Amino acid sequence: xxxxxxxxxxxxxxxxxxxxxxxxxxxxxxxxxxxxxxxxxxxxxxxxxxxxxxxxxxxxxxxxxxxxxxxxxxxxxxxxxxxxxxxxxxxxxxxxxxxxxxxxxxxxxxxxxxxxxxxxxxxxxxxxxxxxxxxxxxxxxxxxxxxxxxxxxxxxxxxxxxxxxxxxxxxxxxxxxxxxxxxxxxxxxxxxxxxxxxxxxxxxxxxxxxxxxxxxxxxxxxxxxxxxxxxxxxxxxxxxxxxxxxxxxxxxxxxxxxxxxxxxxxxxxxxxxxxxxxxxxxxxxxxxxxxxxxxxxxxxxxxxxxxxxxxxxxxxxxxxxxxxxxxxxxxxxxxxxxxxxxxxxxxxxx
Length: 350
Fold this sequence. Notes:
The structure is a single chain. The chain is of the alpha/beta class. α7 runs parallel beside α9. Helices cover 37% and strands 19% of the residues. The protein is elongated and about 70 Å long. 43% of the residues are buried. The strands form two sheets. Strands 1-2-3-4-7-8-9-10-11-12 form a ten-stranded mixed beta sheet.
């Protein structure tokens, strides 16, 4: 979407941009604040809900702007832990999915940043049909807004770790973070936002220079270039040496430690040798390792390490002085893995 088209998407505009738009439409500047509040605080789904906006301005807005409001296609709820997975339809008929996870410290929503993905990671369902398109800032925001309205529960943490590679949609991602953390909107702290990447080095360096206080999570999944290349095509472009230098640079620029996501695949990357190599690779960095027993994906033949193997892997890393946790498994009895719900829905429809 071009800059001009983006300016016509009302939910993707900052308050300042909205003020400029009101000025160009010969409207009073305070109308921008009213509209912005309806969009980002009261989470209006349509102009008709905006009771203090004149009918004439509503008509002008309809003529000048598109209004992003996702439609719910399907909701799955885990009987084990109450995790909810949502399948949303965009205005062009494309589908994206989001997950609500409830923790003691608050509700966390995992959102998608693209329709599909072109990164090709071997154990991920998101990438099986390639990349359809990038999501707009408003389409990322509205996953959170829709879930808030559907559940009546406040979201306190946001993870950009659903379908898509966020850094492959860099400008829209930054705009989304700006809007999400704006004190005039939901005002979610940057420290409560995590962005995941498979390791696009130039974009990671660019993000470091933004000096945001978000958490950057790198999908690592292997401790040697050879093994990582077999799992993640991006590893053919950027070596682990480059990646580790970039992670150190990110910490230097932001003061925020890196999280390494490491999906445990039975017999592939969970051996004694993997522990040694991983400890050696990340030992010098201020980091945290998040071990993830991989969700089985029907179209792939990888099997996640069992709990015993995961605990053993964790204990060995801890003995080597590495800060590590095993991610709590949420929504395993529903289509929990990235891209699974969307893919199963599309398959059934075709």
